[in-house]
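Human: Not sure, check this?
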Amino acid sequence: MKNSLMKIMIAISVLLSTTSNAQIKNAKTESVKIYGNCGMCETKIEKAGNIKKIANVDWNQETQMAILTYDATKTNQDEILKRIALVGYDSDKFLAPDDVYNNLHGCCQYDRVAKVPVKEVATVIARNEDHSNHSNHSETTTTVIQSENQLKAVFDNYFLVKDALITSNGISTASASKELVTAINNVKMDKLDMDIHMVWMKVVNTIQKDAENIANTKDVKIQRDHFTSLSKEIYTVIKISKYENPVYYQFCPMFNDGKGANWLSKENAVKNPYYGSMMLSCGKTVETIK
């Protein structure tokens, strides 16, 4: 009887989840167990797992079962469960970091049975969040903090590509962009802070394609055309993740048939990568990113 009731509840949850997630394309739906006890757990589990139009988590407090609905071309079950583990909740695949679990409120601490630990990360605890599900309780939320900015290698190699374009040397530019491709491939999204993770996930395919196209040719004109798109997407990432020093977002009004194009520089002085020595100082700084 108990098993039958659980199956009925899961079936209802699947139906409701399918209806509410019609906006998720290429939708795949799975049922997994995520350990927790209460309404506070439900709020945190679903918040960690949900990504607008990409992933939705519907967790049931009674059965401890979650219905995952996600765009299979953009994420997968492991990524969702890792995010949930990083805020303190085990699944049968991933074990939350001990310090995160230990900082859950007492009512949220469940019996732990998972065996595979999620990758360890440094954490900082932010207390006193809203917790309307439990009166007189002080909810603890965990923000994942990176011990190092793994995107720094991406930015550093981008600047090397830009510098090579200033010299109008297609061979040097291709070589620098090969290093950029390597840096991009080395980025592990599960180690990024969630806000950076979201931005990186949206632009990484474009960044990688542009970098590969620049690396695969020695034609400076073609390299510069791809550099316009590359710079636009690198800008969106560096805006949210920041760099160790101020970065200057600069603009050339002449390139791209007079439509203009932007690039990023570590120097405020303009050195135009789209024309090199032909019009080295053409352009201006339009934004300083600190």
